[in-house]
Structures are given as C-alpha cells and as structure tokens.
Amino acid sequence: MAQSDENARIEHLIDEMTLEEKVGQLTMLSGELVQTGPASAPVTSEAIRKGRVGSLLNLWGSERVRDVQRHAVEGSRLKIPLFFCLDVLYGLRTFFPIPFGESCAFDAPLWEKTARVAAQECAVEGIDLNFSPMLDVARDPRWGRTVEGPGEDAFLAGRFAEAKVRGFQAWGLSAQGVVAATAKHLAAYGAVQAGREYAPVDMSARQLHEVYLPPFRAAVRAGVAAIMPAFTDFNGVPMTANAAILRDIVRRDWGFSGVMISDYSAVAELIAHGIAADKAEAAALALNAGVDIDMMGHDTYYDGLPIALEKGLVKLETIDAAVRRVLELKTKLGLFEDPYRRCGTPSAIAATAAQGKRKDLAREAACRSFVLLKNKGDVLPLRDVQTSLAVIGPLADAKGEAREPVAAHESVAGTAIPVLDGLRKAHPNAKVAFTPGSDVVKINATQRAAARELARSSDVIVLCLGETMAMSGEAGSRGNPGLPAAQCELARMVLAQKKRVVILLFSGRPLVLPDWLVEKAYALVAAWFPGSEAGPALADLLTGRFNPVGRLSMCWPMDVGQIPIFFGARPTGRPAAANDHYTSKYLDMPNEPRFPFGYGLSYSRFELSGLRVDRAQVRAGETVTISVDVVNHGPLAGQETVLLFIRDQVSSITRPVLELKDFQKIALAAAQRGTMRFDLAAEDLSFLGPDLAPKLEAGMFDVLIGQSADRSKMLSTEIELIL
Ligand code: BGC
Predict the structure, then answer these.
(1) Which pTM does this prediction carry?
(2) Three state DSSP letters for 224-264
(3) Which stretches of 393-447 are assigned E, i.e. beta strand?
(4) Catalytic residue among 87, 136, 153, 263
(5) Of the residues 507, 539, 562, the one at which a domain ends
(6) Of 228, 262, 345, 379, which cross-links 522 as Cys (Cβ 3.0–4.6 Å)?
(7) Residue 345 C-alpha to ligand 1 middle, in angstroms?
C-alpha cells in the first residue's frame, strides 16, 4: 500500500474512533504468561473485543498470539490489530551472553549478529516489539540492572545501541524476521542513589547530556522504533512526566517520531512519586510529556485521560497525535496487512531454529564475552589436564543461569549446557570430579568436606563462584556486590590446598573481590552469564581452543567504598599524590579500581609501539589519522583490542581525564606484526559548552592509545586543534 493510502487509513481510523477506543490504543496490558512487574489481572478477550487495549506484553508463542489477535481483528469494531511485546535482551530460544557480558566483546558486528538471530526467533513466535536494547550507562555495580546494559562508558554504549537497533530492525519493520526495538530506560536510571533500585536520581544536566543521553541519541539516529522512559525521576521530575527531556530534547531536538512506551505501571506511579494527585493528573502529565502508551498503569490512561480531557488538562489533538504514532507503528510492523505475520507455523519455527549455526554463534559470543582477569604462570590454557580436574562450586552445574530474567524462558532454559558438562566433554580422558550443591549462599559442612577431599586429590581445580541470575536484574540491587560469605569460606578452603586453582566468576555485574582471593587464585575469569553454550564456550576458553579477547566494559572496584568509580572522571585541583596529605585520595584504600575499564588478558602477549599521527595540527572539518604498531609475541594466534582516548589539556569547562573515542581489533598470528589506524575527526574533539551545545575550542589534546583505561600503560602523543 502506498504511504499516502496508509496515512489515509490512519486518519480515517482516528476519525472513526470513540474516545474510549483512542485511549484503548494507548493502553498496553499484560498477557501474564510471564510476569515482569507487580501482579495484575490478565487481559480478557472481552477487553480486546471492546477495543480497550492496543497492545500486549508478556504473551508470546505463535498459537497463543494468533488466538488473542483474532479477538482484535475479528471481534472488535474497528478491527485494529494488537501488537505484542516481550523483553528479549539476550535471546528467545538461543541464549547469548547477558548484554553486559556481550558488551565486553567490544565487537559491534557480533552485537548486531546476535540481535539479528534474536529478532528472527521473536518474529516467528508472535513478538512484534522487543523491549531491548537497554542502554543505561552503569557506574555503580550495586545496581542489579547493570546486567542488562553495556557498562560504564557512553561511547561504547552508543556503539552498542547502533548495533543492536540494526540487528533487531535490520532493513525495515515490515521485512521478514524483523522486530521493533525499544531503547530503554531513558535516562540516567543507572545513577539511582547508592545503587538502590528505583531510588531517586539527582545529577547535573551536564552529566545527563555527556554520559547518559548519548547512547539513546545513537539509538534514535539508528532509527529505533520505540523509547521507554525510566521509572526514576531526574532532579525531581519523574522521567515518565519529564517533558523537558522527552518532548523537548528527544522529540523536538532529536526528531524522534516513534512511540514512547511507559515502563511497567510508571504512569500510575506518578501518584506515588507525589507529582500527581489522581489518575487524571498522572495521565495528563505523562501524555503531555510525550508518553504515548501506558504500560500496565492500572488503567491510568484509560480512566484518567477522558477526565483529563474534560478538565482541560490535555487536548484532544495530543491524544490523537499519540494514537497516530501507535497506528503508524502498527502500519510499519505490517500488522494491518497481515496481523499474524509474526505467528510462524511449527515448520517455520523449526526452520528458523535450524538457520545459520545459532549454537556456534552463541558459543562464539560467549567466548568473546569472557574476560581473563589473571593468569599466573600461564596456568591457562589447561593443556596438561589428563588425569584429574576438579570442578567445585555451586555454579558448576547450574543450567538455569543462562536464561532471561523473565520466567518466559524457563521452558527453554533447560537446554543450556553447564560448565561441568562442557569440561567433561572437553576432557574425555580426565577424571572430572564434581561436588554437588547448587545453593550459592548456603554451603554445608558435608559439601565443604567433599570439596576439600576433591581439591586434595586433583591437579587442577576449576572453582565456579558468583551470583545466580536472580541476584542481579531488576530489583536486584546488592549493597555488597561480592561473593556470598559461604562461597568465600569454600574458596579459602580450596585455595589452602595450594593447588592450581582457576576461578570462574559468574555475575551480572563487576564483583568486589577479597584481596586474598585475587592473590591466591592462579587464574580468574569473568564469565558473566554465558547463555545456552556456557559449558562448551568455557571449555573452549580453558583448553585454549579459544584465545580470550574480552575486555571489561566497566571497571571492577577494589572495595564498595570506591563506588561510583569509572575511568571518565573529571580532574581535581589536587590529584592524588602519595606523599602529599592534602590530595584527592582515600586513607584506607587506593583510588584505582582492581581491574580498569578495557582490561582483559589474552593467552598471547601483545605489545603496542610506534604511536604516530599524520598531522600535528587539525582544523574543523579535517581528520587526523593515528597509527600504532601491534606485535603478537605469541605463543598463540590471537586478537587484540586497542582503545583510543583523548584528553583535552586546557578547556573552558573541565573535561574528563580520559575520553574514549574509538576501539578496534586486530587479529595476529604468533610473532606477527600489524598496524592499526584510527581516524579522529576534529569534531570528535568537541565538548558541550556552557549551554550544553557542542563546542570546539582551539588547543592541545593528548591522544592516547592503550590496551585498557590504565593511563600509566598508554602510549601518548599530542595534536593541536586550530580554529
Ligand atoms: C522493566 C522494563 C521491562 C518492563 C516489561 C519493567 O519492570 O523495567 O525494562 O521492559 O518491565 O517487562
């Protein structure tokens, strides 16, 4: 259908609709197949036939969606199709690593590929819109939702945003195998006070614009179909009612014309926030701020908007504009043409599952997400484990730790392969013994004794520690994001056997580890939650079939007292100096994190040298090419990730001590050399001026190249910006 005809259909529908039908289109209810928020009554077929709901979440599966959609397109007066939504952050049937883990791959093509596969799987199981990607910058590991996002840095998060939107939406929403993406949760949710879930957010507008908004801007530029405002407030104005950000910045300045969907019951929560007295006020605040759809808001839009209209709190044209955006989305999704287009037949579902070596991709993505944090004496890879390998710890046999945090996926979670099975398969001739017990917080005396005996009689011990999935995610804040006491006790006992101990750490966030554990372990691997192919992927890593490439997308603090901690801090007038008391430092712990952003070891040794620029001066519109030589000293072929940072030496507003501007990878055989080139445009040297608009200021800039954000190990040179 031509666009003009589609527009005419939308206008015709709006003309035809009663007010109730309009607010119905703006109401999203739950199919309650899974529950991702406070309990409620599931949607009824009668409500659908009456047109009092326009979209559903948490209901998926081809047949179920067909059954429900039929009520809308056959039983309702205007026959407007529903659209169906789910949170699919790391896979529907094929599980990839958690997004936080995936972000450690520093690999945009990979991020896109895994999103593509997830979209294809959604698009045959009735899902039209995915509540993903989650783009909240996180600098506080106490916050459980760190697991869903791309880490601490806005630049990295922006790259992640583009790749994920391209992966989910590919070549247009009406194409086969495509779903609409949602950039969430706009914005600054990751900065909740003290890392406590749903707590207030209070920060400067500068920080919002420099750090928290850019990933969303990148998603909008990539054409994201929907945006979800955060539950939280921003400096006293809940994001769901934040017209200054949603309407003025996102819609007006960025030109976002897609749909804004509230978070789960967030419109109703404006009353609890204390900025609305009743449903009518809450509904008016959210709609006027630009929120089109009220998700699970106890009918705040449905009941409140008619009253708000009567009271003059909202205009009919604002309601119509929101309805228009919803109908446009349905049009783009191709639902008017075929409301069942994403309800695949069993054979289409099977064919999708068989496509494109998904298991291999899940295994590769998992391998690429692992970060090797320590490898004393090159204990890894484990080449000589022919006799006895002990696999100890509560997470060794956990199958469930690879699923989405929503119960929707419990049925498919059983297909995930745990570490233990992966290692057994990788070492068919070795005695791979294991101590049962999967409770991560309670390990009893018998289990400890069994673990001690096993550790004594084994050459190498793989100790599987960390969190369960349920300890991170939404409402998963932890005041002490470390290892539970029982695991520390187990680890002490195992490490006391003085064997080669490799610790695999499963978590949805950086963990705060005890010093003794880091010192005594031979190897440490951040394994996150690796997905369906956890076991085989970890076996690949441990045996050296895969040479680690992962890098931390968020630093690991030494101590909870350092939080929030991140590499892009602003300078101080009194930088830390060991011998000077009156400088910016702690008396009882270092300023530096345990492992910096970008950190991660390989089984190869890479060295950078010969940093050079093709011009020492750059003018607006010009680009400087930065080159650096990389050599792989072996012993294995491997891949190195190189990070490009800048530091503005003198500026009218202080700039972070390091700003990430690019990252690239290079694959080198043992003893091979290569050269990497980065193009840095003069505009990349801009910053936000006093009015928060981008500004270029002439002057000198440090150009720094490193393997992590540890400045002491970087190569650096200077360039001058001339205006
Ligand atoms: C979460 C969102 C999610 C929504 C729907 C909320 O509780 O904050 O991220 O998309 O539920 O499941």
Answers:
(1) 0.97
(2) CCEEEECCCEECCEEHHHCHHHHHHHHHHHCCCCCEEECCC
(3) 431-434
(4) 263
(5) 562
(6) 379
(7) 28
Q: What is the pLDDT of residue 42?
A: 76
What local confidence, expressed as pLDDT, does residue 39 receive? 67
Distance 43 CA to ligand 1 centre (A): 17
- pLDDT per position as a tens digit, 287-331: 999 999 999 988 999 999 999 999 999 999 999 999 999 999 999
Do 649 and 518 share a structural domain? no
Q: Which of 501, 529, 562 is the last residue of a domain?
A: 562
160 within domain boundaries: no
Same domain, 526 and 638: no
Q: Do residues 179 and 85 lie in contact, with contact meaning Cβ atoms separated by under 8 Å? A: no
* Residue 266: closest CA among 289, 234, 300, 307: 300
Show the domain range for 504: 371-562
Q: Are residues 660 and 552 in the same domain?
A: no
Any domain includes 622: yes
Q: Which protein residue has the closest C-alpha to ligand 1 atom 4?
A: 264
The answer to the question of residue 387 being in a domain is yes
Test site for ligand 1: of 35, 131, 179, most ligand atoms within 8 A of the Cβ: 131
Nearest alpha-carbon partner for 178 in 22, 324, 342: 342
Amino acid letter for position 69: Q
Residue with the nearest Cα to atom 10 of ligand 1? 131
pLDDT (tens digit, 9 = 90+) per residue, 625-667? 999 999 999 999 999 999 999 999 999 999 999 999 999 999 9
Bridge partners for 619 per DSSP? 722
By most ligand atoms within 8 Å of CB, the mutation choice from 87, 148, 260, 267 for ligand 1 is: 87
Nearest CA to ligand 1 atom 12: 36
150 DSSP assignment: -
Which helix (H) or strand (E) is 705 found in, with range? Answer: strand 699-706
Tell me if residue 15 is catalytic: no
Where the chain has pLDDT below 50, the residues are 405-408, 410
- Can you give the pLDDT at residue 541? 96
Q: Which atom of ligand 1 is nearest to the CA of 184?
A: 9
Q: Is residue 618 part of a domain?
A: yes
Assess contact for 473 and 145: CB atoms under 8 A.
yes
Residues having CB closer than 6 A to ligand 1 are: 36-37, 57, 87, 131, 184, 263-264, 474
Please tell me whether residues 537 and 389 are part of one structural domain.
yes
CA dihedral of residues 363, 364, 365, 366 (deg, nearest 10): 50
| 380 and 464 assigned to the same domain | yes
The domain spanning residue 431 has which CATH number?
3.40.50.1700
- How far away, in angstroms, is 405 Cα from ligand 1 center? 11
pLDDT for residue 407: 41
